[in-house]
Probable membrane transporter protein (Candidatus Parvarchaeum acidiphilum ARMAN-4), 258 residues
Amino acid sequence: MLAIFIIIPIFAMFVAFIGNMAGIGGGALFVLFFLYYLGLSSFYASGLSLIAISTSSIIGSYSNIRHGFVNLHLFKILLAMGLIGVLLGSLLSFIVPTAIFKGVFGFIPLTIGVFSLIATIKQRKIKNYKIPKNKFGKDVSVISLIAGAISGFTGMGIGGITGTYMTAVHKMNPKIIFSTIILAMIITSIFGGLLHLGTINFSKDTLLYIPFIIIGAAIGAFIGARVSGIVKSKNLRLFQSLVIIFTGLLAISIYLFI
């Protein structure tokens, strides 16, 4: 039991670092850890993942705001539509059995990652990404809604879908997009986490997981935000794609062979 409380903050720190670098929150990796290592239900695993994401997002956003990487207009869209989506996704996760959840979970990040990688390769020759505008089309609202629903269902952050879409389709600056998404994930993830965990009776052991998750996520997010601020935008895009694909393949492999 003691080993668990050493492993949890170390793992949370590692995932939060990657999540803030890639602008995705790292929720998929958290969910896999909670599902297979701690043996929690999918509903509980998703809730804990969202709590971890909200923690890492808070730390990461401080640095991002200070460097002027946040677009407030896009933030409002992500937040409004994301919250609605999280509510719908959380309701769905409540009725889907853990066995089915494990079977379909890996295909979601894998699909997102492949699309992101293809778009990244096609755009390697772009010298300057666009700066986000103050007005966005309805498609951004729809994508934010879908991302929120998947976040509420899987425990992943909204960054994988919205980040990929905005950088691949709209060709917006990855640093600004990822930073804005991370800020929005503070509220959407807290909301989703409360929807999940507020309906569960905690055991004494599992209740103790939360502070260790928060501490590890906070440290990892701080380091990740610092590093992402000095990495080139194109490298961030490629890193995001590879992380999402790896997570999807890992989830499918674990489900099939363990």
In short: The mean pLDDT is 83.
